[in-house]
Amino acid sequence: MPKFTKRLADWTLSDSTSPWFHFVKHFSWSDTPFGAIDTWSLELRRSTAKIMNSPDPRILLFGDQRAIIYNEAFAAVVGRHHPQCLGAPLADVQVDIIFEILWNMSLTAYDGRGARRTRQELLLERSGSMEQTFWNIFLSPLPGSDGYCDSVVGEFTDVTDLVVQDQRRSQGLDILDSVSKVECLPELWSQFLGALEKNAPDISYAMIYTAFDHSSFVRSEGLPTPDITPHDDTLQSATSYFVKQYQLAGSLSLPESVLEPIIDLSIAGSSRAPGLANAFREALETKEITILSDAALPNELSVRIADSGTVRCASILPIANLDGKPLAVVVLGLDPRRPFNEHMSRFVHCIHEAVCKQAILITLPQDQQQFQRKYEETTMALSTELRLSILKAKKKEEKFLRIAKSAPLGMFLYSPKERTIQVNDAYLKITGTTKEDLDKTAGLELPWLQTVSEEYMDVAIKEWQHLMTEKTPSAIEYKIHLDEHGEVYLIHGWLVDISDRLAKDTLLAQRLEDALETKTATEHFLDMVSHEMRNPLSAIFQCSDEILDTIQTHKNQPGMPSMTTAQLKSLEDAAHTIALCAQHQNGIFSDILTVSKLDSQLLTIMPEKIRPVDIVQRALKMYGQEAKRSDIITSIDVQDTYTKHISEFVMADPNRLLQIIINLLTNAINHTRSCRERSIVISLGASTTEPNNASDQIVFMPPTPRRSSSPLTPSTEQDQFSAAFLDSCSGQDVYLHIAVQDTGCGLSESEMRLLFKRFSQPKTYGQYSGSGLGLFLSKELIELQAGRIGVTSTEGLGTTFSFYIKCRKPTEEPASVPMATPRSPRIKSHRPRMSRTEAFNDRDLEFTRQPSPVRGLHVLVVEDNPLNQRLVAKQLRNQGCTVHTADHGLEALEFLSKTSITSSSTSGIKLDIVLLDIEMPVMDGLSCIRKIRDLEQEGFYLRRVPVIAVTANARDEQMREALEAGMDAVVTKPFRIPELLVRMSEVVSGQHFA
């Protein structure tokens, strides 16, 4: 928006040099009911400022005395009463119709109601004579400080032109209607005078003189022999006739004493009205209307008419037949209260035209009359249509001129001769010029170039030359007008001030850059925190596993140093406690990172082809031991709707779905472990339509209001999710239903109100109850997948959490390939599957007691952290692996060059698989794997080198980057050795592609 500078609007405080403001400011207000200006109230100053600043006539009646104050435009209305009435009470100046009207209307206005009069006639003194005017008057009450009316403002709008035009239009139609039906000349004169008497406010009087008789027709002296051949021109002919005498056929609004019965035009004749005779002679010879006014008006035509005054202007209208023979002369005395101007002249010509045409029609033969009548009707219709078209065009032109004047765009009209024709105010403001400046440069070549900056001068000149030579619109938005010869005659253009837009574009670009930097910084922070926390957690898990394995080995192997059962039990409990603490810490850490991703809009949905039953079974396996220790019975209920609508696979994000189920499952375990009846049932169902609140008495929570997305993300999470589905397959939509029902303590109404809120818990538990983020995150993750979650609970009987997410049926057999979201690149189908390892619990310990699936493998562990490197190597050796180590990627490449898989190697060091960290000095893991795959392409290695990325970089984008770089699989920290062993076995055997 453009900035505007405030201007002083109170004339009492202004230093304006205007003569009017100087006059009213120094007027003796102290001698009036208003009092001195410096004593005026704020309301009075505002009211007077309103009328003084108006360009139209405005008046203010103040106080009980209705004291008068008006603006400069109203002073012209008051006329000779100014300045005597300024400041005076209204009752003291009732000597004029204006103040009488104001007094009557103010009675209503002071009663608190508006008063209106339309088309009120006022006789005003203008240019030394009285003139008839018409006004729309509106008086509106103004409240004082107490709310009661203490003043009235009057608004006067001059509608004289509009009223007079309407009257003349009506007069013209009445005259035309009256004369168009007559069939003889005497009837024509009678009907014409009757129409004037009925409706002719512009005509003060009228007289009609007709040719005395046809035998008196003679040729005018000095004129050529008449040509009696008919001519096309109905009003002009080569023959000119002179009639010596005219007799009075009728009159209007004139007494008989002033009427001359016969006008003799002969030179030898004598007439009592020589001035009128001379006027007749001039009109008949020129065959055109003669206007007589002021000194040229004969005394016999300067007649005083009651209610209108002495006529000062008259018109002489000659009437002739088709051959030019004079038939009559019409004399019209014009109303002295209306000025003779262009509009009055046009009106008189219209009257003359109507009478002449009908007189010609009457004097024509019968067949020509019919033809002429049709011709006149057609001409009249076309003329009416033309007038309407011109009127509409003028109104449109006026409207567009008003629009152009107030438009915020700079608009201009140039001629090809480099002359500025017209510009609007915005053009002057934008270019910083004035109309006077434009006038001064009118004689210069291309004067408008004076407003163009020097750096754009060449461009402007080039575009101008293009306009003049090519005659087509220019790219800088000039509009070209061509005349009938195809030449440029007008150039119409727009000038737009784009300074604000450029500033906004610069600000937007800066903010976008800041947003990108913030996003990068946020991702870097999350990566750093994730990396620094996942590494020690991984070590804690592995240490606890080693303690438990050692205890198990001590139990199973005879001959070991004896330890009491209590000691073994104590060590085992300590190891379980370490694992439980680490698992709890990892859960809270994961929740916090997820919340951070949500807040930063970095969380994405990665649909894959999955079996929902497998996800539920995995969650139960992960937390089965914890439920078993609390004597909680867990089960899965696969409903008929599930088998009906989901044959086996759906497209969904397995990790987000697992995270939701784990949160609800651990919540159910915490609610149930202290109850008498302890059971948890996870139900699976499906539908092809979105569920509603009526389903199973579950009340779904309203979705969380989303803040507006940044320019870097899709408009809404649901849009992002839907786009991901559309990109994955064209299968049918299906809604997956999952409910977690427990027999726990249940929730009260007050506790249910705390559900799904950040960092809030309906109940607290003694041991690691959680961060209060689980249910909140579950709701957010469900809504990210176009679903909703609901709950039903009875205190003391249990709780059921039910949710649904939108999935899609895959159209092909499962390929287990991660699907790209709108914010991620497509991953080609030949890439191996990405694995995101979740935190493990006691069920993983059972793996260590089974024969190792990787016993005998030769493994290279590439890890820069000495502690992690030592722990992983030790655990793998305990599983029967031969382990080699390297501190960074360069050492790994050097070691690979010495193994049996290298074509040039002679040492024959055996190697089956590489465990490769990503964040390392000297050479990082991604650079290393790319080099390995390049060497494979070059034939440096005899076979493909199996490589698993073991990293704390757990973001989806980072894992995709690792797979695209050439990793066969990804295991994220923290991990347990049993999970790592399974992945190693899959990669070595090639099953990781399944």
From TrEMBL:
Single GO molecular function: phosphorelay sensor kinase activity
InterPro entries, alphabetized: 2C_system_His_kinase, CheY-like_superfamily, HATPase_C_sf, HATPase_dom, His_kinase_dom, HisK_dim/P_dom, HisK_dim/P_sf, PAS
The annotated regions of Basic residues compositional bias extend over 825-834
Annotated Response regulatory domain residues: 858-988
Spell out the residue ranges making up region: Disordered.
814-834
This chain's source organism reads: Aureobasidium melanogenum
Pfam families found in the cross-reference section: HATPase_c (PF02518), HisKA (PF00512), Response_reg (PF00072)
- Using the record's annotation, list all stretches that form the Histidine kinase domain: 528-809
Question: Which of the residues bear the PTM 4-aspartylphosphate?
Answer: D917
Looking up PROSITE patterns in the UniProt record yields: HIS_KIN, PAS, RESPONSE_REGULATORY
Which keywords fit this entry according to its UniProt record? Kinase, Phosphoprotein, Transferase
What is the name of the protein in this document? Answer: Histidine kinase
Q: Which part of the chain is the PAS domain?
A: 396-438
